[in-house]
Specification:
Blueprint: E1 8-10, E2 16-18, H1 44-62, H2 73-93, H3 101-117, H4 130-152, H5 170-209, H6 216-253
Antiparallel strand pairs: 1-2
Helix pairs in contact: 1-3, 2-3, 2-6, 3-6, 4-5, 4-6, 5-6
Membrane topology: Multi-pass membrane protein
Function: Key component of the proton channel; it plays a direct role in the translocation of protons across the membrane.
InterPro entries: ATP_synth_F0_asu (IPR000568), ATP_synth_F0_asu_AS (IPR023011), ATP_synth_F0_asu_bact/mt (IPR045083), F0_ATP_A_sf (IPR035908)
Length: 257
Amino acid sequence: MAEVVAGLEPVEGGGLSFHPMDQFIVQPLFGEAGDPVHWYTLTNAAFWMALAVLCIFGLFVLATRGRAIVPGRMQSVAEMAYGFIYKMVEDVTGKDAVRYFPYIFTLFLFILFANFLALIPSAFSPTSHIAVTAVLALAVFLAVTILGFVKNGGAFLGLFWVTSAPLAIRPVLALIELISYFVRPVSHSIRLAGNLTAGHAVLKVFAGFAQVAAISPLAILGVTAIYGLEVLVAFIQAYVFTILTCVYLKDALHPSH
């Protein structure tokens, strides 16, 4: 019986069939691929998201519970991450947005840990699924929109009225701004999911080629290079999602152009 290895399987004629997208299939954690998934089913996606939360808890609760004046390695990592995002929120959004720092920091940590855990061989990447990233993006969109009206009332609509433009073209610009505003959650979610999906798919393809003896040295070099790039992408995508959240929050707090 032919055995599937690294996303490849022999087909009739001696060729190889690639299935790089199989790694994104949501399936029961205990069971076989293709088994029904209900709302209460523990899936591979739920497991890796829960693992990301546990890792965050381990780093920011267990590793820092001593609150040492001279921090250890794990406490130093936690403090650096805290300071990095706190400075981002303060610089991009302003000091009055610091009260929303816990939510923004939570978003950053969840995406970052989910991205990095997905780089473990045979792991699952929840942030490559639009169902996950869309929920995160919609939560940000709804939160900043509600906050904008609560804080500014009708003045929040000034976000769409470009006062610096000539009066004759302001209605056209307002329509463009309005469309752009409602497209935010789409671009916010697709950017993250698309980059993670593309990177993992390419990585799986190169890993599959590594099974072919004639090109395995080049394929292994390719896997190494792409894996290094994916480590960078894992951080950059968490950073981009977070900084865009800060920009949207700034618009909600200070809507006038």
